[in-house]
Specification:
With 95 residues, this protein is an all-beta fold. It is built from no helices and 6 strands.
């Protein structure tokens, strides 16, 4: 396992796995919780695959992370809910 920071190019699918926890993030629209993480020791699932969307205009230099199974973009913010996913391909400032 590499400790180097790597940002993949837009297009290819990637799984987001915690270095210490060894849990993969998931984003799904079929059952709650819709966003969470799951141990990689339990296998690989379609809702664990994401692509990057690179921002343009006011969002240039930023990326959105889009779930392949859900078609929604992950967000993290200070108000509730603090994490989740939403449509819009990263058009919101906190997502």
């Amino acid at each position: 396992m590499s400790s180097a920071f790597y940002v993949p190019p837009a297009g290819p699918r990637s799984r987001l796995i915690g270095y210490v926890s060894q849990c993969a993030i998931f984003s799904r629209s079929t059952a709650e919780p819709y966003v969470g993480h799951y141990s990689v020791s339990h296998g690989e699932y379609p809702d664990q695959w994401f692509t990057l969307l690179y921002g343009t205009s006011g969002h240039a230099g930023l990326c959105a992370i889009k779930g392949q199974a859900s078609g929604e973009v992950l967000f993290s913010r200070s108000k509730s809910p603090s994490v989740g996913h939403i449509e819009g391909d990263g058009t919101y400032n906190d997502k």
